[in-house]
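Technical note accompanying the year-one report. For the benefit of new consortium partners, we illustrate the data format agreed upon in the data management plan: each record pairs a sequence with a structure-token string. No post-processing was applied to the example shown here.
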Amino acid sequence: MQNFHCVFYDIPISPHRGFISPHNHNDATGSDPVGLFLRLLLIGMIMKFKDANVLITGGASGIGRIMGRMALEKGAAKLIIWDINEKNIELVKGELSVLGKVSGYRVDVSDKKVIEEAYAATVKECGAVDIVIQCAGIVTSNATFDKLTTPDIERTMMINAIAPMNVAHVMLPDMIKRDKGHICNIASAAGMLSMPKMSVYAASKWSVIGWSDSVRIELHDMKSKVRFTTVAPYFINTGMFDGVASPIFPILDPEHTARKIIRSIERNRNFRGIPFGFHFIRLMEAILPSWLFDFVFGTIFGIYHTMDHFTGRKNDNTKHPGSKNSGNPEVAA
């Protein structure tokens, strides 16, 4: 009999070796319980997005857009895009509708009331939300903290830190009641390391990491099946961080990074740093005295100068109120 291959993992799944269907109970009594468990686990991961309603904030651009496509390719029942840019929403709906059902809503996630109204409309029109991927984020400039305006500071914290909390605060009670759901929060590698000329951005991402992983523990203690995943990627080549220098790690490829995030959700990962090697810098920060770490990584390797020539997306016409140089709401790495 023919073996079938998992498209995304390239692992053979044989009808005679571990694939269990409701009409094939004999497979469950095989002589390889470990292999059987691993195959069942794999099948469960493959099916994570199957028939799920997937909502992505900042889903009309960047890797939010890419992950929307991947969700549909994996069999999502419906893709729901929340974004501030109506033109981009319509473009993505037209592009991805050939893969499945796509709905879009213009949502300013900095406004809790707008979030509540959008969620009510989403549930009414699309049904319960199963998976949420929070990609919305902004970076305002590469100015030092003393040069930032109060609107710059408040808008960055609102979009990057408070908005993900508000979105989850609105949606989580329904997920807990159903005992089903998954929220993936896209933070940043900047949330694990002090970064000059992006101090408020770094603060917002430190906030997301601490909050997101704390809620994960709360859900675990409640014995809830609702999952939280926190992802902290390095700079991603989406245009949001045009001009940054990357002396140690290469700028991440959007397609490859999106695939890793989707896989982290499928595998119910608690935390995922991308690339993994970034954790080495964190280890050195813990081991070395601050003056030596600053000299080696800040001066010699230049990580404290990554934002010196930052320009950001120059052709972006979407401006958020209160921010003079905000980018599209998309993943901020």
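Partners are asked to follow this layout when depositing records. The beta strands are 4-5, 12-13, 53-57, 78-83, 101-106, 131-134, 182-186, 227-233, 271-274.
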